[in-house]
Amino acid sequence: MSYVPLQAAFHPGYSFSPRCSPCSSPQNSPGLQRASARAPSPYRRDFEAKLRNFYRKLEAKGFGQGPGKIKLIIRRDHLLEGTFNQVMAYSRKELQRNKLYVTFVGEEGLDYSGPSREFFFLLSQELFNPYYGLF
């Protein structure tokens, strides 16, 4: 009984010695011939094109190049009412995606978290004020 398949024995390039086989060299490998015959992948793109496509899709969904700014101009004597009116003028998505910058009327200064911190401190005091009856 022979361990050589019958079809392989009659193959023109088949020999019983692996050294003499024409298929044993890497240049004649069927896998290599198939790989070289393939066309380049249609999805292969350079990195810059992928990055532009990524940013285009982000902007289409409403996410820009970083957070925008929502500037609140607050009067200290009408803190709760003024804040409520200004915040309600924006949509939920705008409030979630943008950063709040707070300035007080009559006070100059840049908001590097100082005025914002003071604003939220004063706002929390107003919210818990028993006069409004919120809590």
Task: Give the gist of this structure.
It contains six helices and two strands.
Strand content: 5-15%
Evaluate the radius of gyration.
36 Å
Helix content: 40-55%
How far from one another are the termini?
Answer: 94 Å
The overall average pLDDT, rounded, is 76
GO molecular function, one term: ubiquitin protein ligase activity
EC number: 2.3.2.26
InterPro entries: E3_ubiq-protein_ligase, HECT_dom, Hect_E3_ubiquitin_ligase
Organism: Gulo gulo (Wolverine)
Q: Can you give a write-up of this model?
A:
With about 140 residues, the chain is α+β, with helices and mostly antiparallel strands. Among the domains are: about 5-35, no CATH class; about 70-125, Hect, E3 ligase catalytic domains (Hect, E3 ligase catalytic domain fold, Alpha-Beta Complex). About 40% of the residues lie in helices and about 10% in strands. It has six helices and two strands, in the order αααβααβα. The chain has helices at about 5-10, 30-35, 45-60, 80-90, 90-95, 115-125, and strands spanning about 70-75, 100-105. It has a two-stranded parallel sheet.
